[in-house]
Fold this protein.
Amino acid sequence: MACFHAAQAIIFERQGRLLKTHKGVHTEFHRVMKAEADTDPELVTFLPRAYNFKAQTDYGFEADSELPSAEEARSALEMATRFVDATEAIAAKLPGP
């Protein structure tokens, strides 16, 4: 959820719009980040993957689905940290009030 809210904040600061749905935030964040210099594409594509982890946690796993490995969980946590750090760096470049 930290990644989702960080993406919402960037969209709001860039466009003055508050998007509430995951799909809307994913789509618009991707669009906003394409215009950002030096954007790591892996970070942009992480937002929908992060949502999938959240959904698995919130709603449980299907009987035929595979649980994420410990390595996948560690990788997701590392990526989430990079994501929040990157959005924080972008926000720091925005003009202040």
In short: The mean pLDDT is 85. The two ends are 26 Å apart (CA to CA). The CA atoms of residues 37 and 75 lie 25 Å apart.
